[in-house]
Specification:
The structure holds 2 protein chains of 2 kinds. Chain A is an all-alpha fold. Chain A has a domain at about 105-299: MetI-like fold, CATH 1.10.3720.10. Chain A contains 13 helices and no strands. Chain A is extended. Chain B is mainly alpha-helical. Chain B folds into 2 domains: about 5-50; about 75-270, MetI-like fold. A two-stranded antiparallel sheet of chain B has the order 1-2. In chain B, strand 1 and strand 2 form a beta hairpin. In chain B, helix 2 packs across helix 10, helix 3 (about 75-105) packs antiparallel against helix 4 and helix 3 (about 75-105) packs parallel to helix 6 (about 145-170). The longest helix of chain B is centred in the C-terminal third of the chain and has 35 residues, at about 185-220. The chains are: A mainly alpha, B mainly alpha. The interface between A and B is large, with 59 and 60 residues.
Chain lengths: ~300, ~270
């Protein structure tokens, strides 16, 4: 009965596959599985070390609790009346203050912020002319190729690798980090800005040109107002990225909070690590929120 | 129209004088902050070291050329490890990112008050911590090696993939979902037949895009002991073997360029 019904109804509906060509589809699936097995099999797992390391993992997770606890103690020492706290401790002696001052978190964080601000400003200032040069509707061919190759170079080189080379040349310190971040900003900002300039409304630029404007006036009144919202948005986004990156440049000696973090990891001081990570997350969240507000306003 | 008087003539200007003054004030404050930041960097820099920067560059460049080509055979293993970290890391992160994305998207989350903030917190915290920091942490937990790098990349990519994916889920066409719902489909069936086909191209694009980024990131994970070609870079840097360093940097550059090319081709084919 059911076979006859099936024959009358025809074939049952099947979801069309994502990749239409069956040979290619099965090759891709088979190849992926084979690679997966081989690659996963090649990874050494030392269970003894992991079991030993779990203790560190536990300490790391508990360190977050300790940080919150230290913060709570500090606040309750600061406002004893509010919390009904009668211990009478001096808030300046608390663990919270100790973590923040002794381990140079403040100093590292300050250096990171300074590096972020300076490199973002310089990076933007350099990317604007490069973006103009890398927009095919504005720049002549030789300039276009030159600017595009700068962008390609900046994008291909990883920040950490640039930082290693610069530390070898310039020595330890925030200058290497500052140059690294500025250089990385160019590749990011100039590329996206150039794409925005290429997508601009030609008629507005044309209209300004037809009034007899000079090249500078044309850029200033015909092009710049069209790309300004995007430029502001991208700059805010890059500020956020630069801060995040500045947190790791210290690992290779290029200044910022990364050096503090590295020392803390080496000494297994997980409460310092937790404090630094929480600070980074909070600052990134604030920056992300601010950039969201600013981008919402300009667009 | 904002104007100002000049020799008895009205001249056009972009903004009202007051708005212009406020803008100039803002620029001045910004400039002051920048100069202050620059001064801090300058104070922490040993400028006398810069006197012979040219010599140092020439010296390093002289030592680093020609690259030690014979060393390339020994880099096969590390580059395989790097690729494995990037590829498997992307795969595992996608497995974790998909549920997070569905929980974070406004139209698919079970609860906007309880579940969505948790999903968003996962996205923000995994995204704001750099993969090198994750690697540092994991090296101290699971020990140095490829495994630490793999887990670091997987965790770090969750936020990125989940964020882009949940934005794609929020932008889906509601009409198609309604149509599936109207046939009496269960919640799961709506997901599979109504939502998944719509986000599949975005998903594939995100996967390849992240894979490309992960290749870049996994090349340097070895610097903190998390396996891959960065480990070879670190050991060569430690003994100042500049010909090897330059070769490794070239190999990394080639790997990154190939990764970007493959990713661009695949994304071009999908979209």
């Amino acid at each position: 009965m059911s076979a006859a019904l099936e024959a009358k109804l025809g074939r049952a509906w099947k979801k069309p596959p994502f990749i239409a060509n069956p040979v290619f589809r099965w090759l891709l699936i088979g190849g992926s599985i084979a690679y997966f097995v081989v690659a996963l099999g090649g990874i050494d797992v030392s269970w003894d070390r992991i079991v030993k390391g779990m203790a560190y993992g536990k300490r790391f997770i508990f360190a977050f609790g300790e940080i919150f606890g230290a913060f709570y103690d500090y606040i309750s020492d600061l406002f004893p009346d509010l919390f009904g706290n009668t211990s009478g401790r001096d808030p300046n002696d608390s663990r919270w203050i100790e973590i923040w001052t002794e381990k140079e978190i403040i100093k590292g964080l300050y250096e990171s912020i300074v590096m972020t601000i300076a490199s973002t400003v310089v990076g933007i200032a350099i990317s604007i002319p490069i973006a103009l040069g890398a927009a095919s509707n504005i720049a002549p061919m030789p300039v276009y190729l030159f600017c595009r190759s700068i962008i390609a170079l900046s994008r291909a080189l990883n920040e950490i690798i640039v930082a290693i080379i610069l530390v070898a040349i310039l020595g330890f310190g925030p200058l290497a980090g500052f140059i690294t971040l500025s250089f990385a900003t160019i590749g990011f900002l100039a590329k996206l800005l150039a794409e925005d300039i290429e997508n601009m409304n030609k008629q507005q630029a044309e209209a300004v040109k037809s009034t007899g404007a000079s090249w500078g006036q044309w850029i200033n009144f015909g092009v710049q107002p069209q790309v300004m919202p995007r430029l502001i948005g991208l700059s805010m986004y890059r500020l956020d990225i630069n801060f995040r990156e500045s947190a790791v440049l210290g690992l290779v000696g290029a200044g910022g909070i990364g050096a503090t973090l590295n020392t803390a990891f080496d000494r297994y001081e997980f409460d310092t690590v937790a404090a630094i990570l929480l600070t980074i997350i909070v600052i990134v969240m604030i920056l992300e929120y601010l950039s969201g507000v600013i981008r919402g306003k300009v667009q | 129209m904002p104007t100002h008087e000049k020799n008895g003539l009205k001249v056009w200007q972009v903004r009202e004088t007051k708005a212009q003054l406020i803008r100039w004030g803002a620029w001045l404050i910004g400039l002051a902050i920048f100069i202050f930041a620059w001064k801090e960097i300058s104070d922490n820099t040993l400028w006398f070291m810069m006197d012979n920067v040219g010599e140092v560059v020439a010296d390093i460049a002289g030592r680093a050329t020609p690259p030690a080509w014979s060393f390339i055979l020994e880099l096969g293993g590390p580059i395989w490890d790097t690729l494995a970290i990037a590829t498997l890391g992307t795969f595992f992160s996608l497995i974790m990112a998909v549920p997070v994305a569905f929980l974070a998207a406004r139209n698919t989350t079970p609860s906007r008050v309880f579940v969505r903030p948790i999903a968003l917190l996962i996205i923000v915290s995994t995204r704001s911590v750099n993969s090198l920091i994750w690697a540092l942490l994991l090296v101290s937990i699971v020990g140095p090696g490829v495994l630490a790098g793999l887990i670091a990349i997987s965790i770090r990519s969750i936020g990125f993939c989940a964020k882009l994916l949940y934005e794609a889920i929020e932008e889906i066409n509601v009409v198609q979902v309604e149509a599936i719902k109207a046939t009496g489909a269960s919640r799961m069936q709506v997901m599979v037949y109504g939502i998944v086909p719509q986000i599949m191209p975005a998903f594939a694009g995100i996967a390849v895009f992240r894979w490309d980024i992960n290749i870049r990131e996994s090349t340097v994970l070895g610097l903190v002991g998390a396996g891959g070609i960065g480990l070879a870079l670190q050991s060569s840097l430690n003994v100042l073997a500049w010909p090897k360093v330059s070769l490794i940097l070239l190999v990394i550059l080639v790997a990154v360029v190939i990764g970007e090319w493959v990713s661009a081709k695949v994304r071009g084919a999908i979209i």
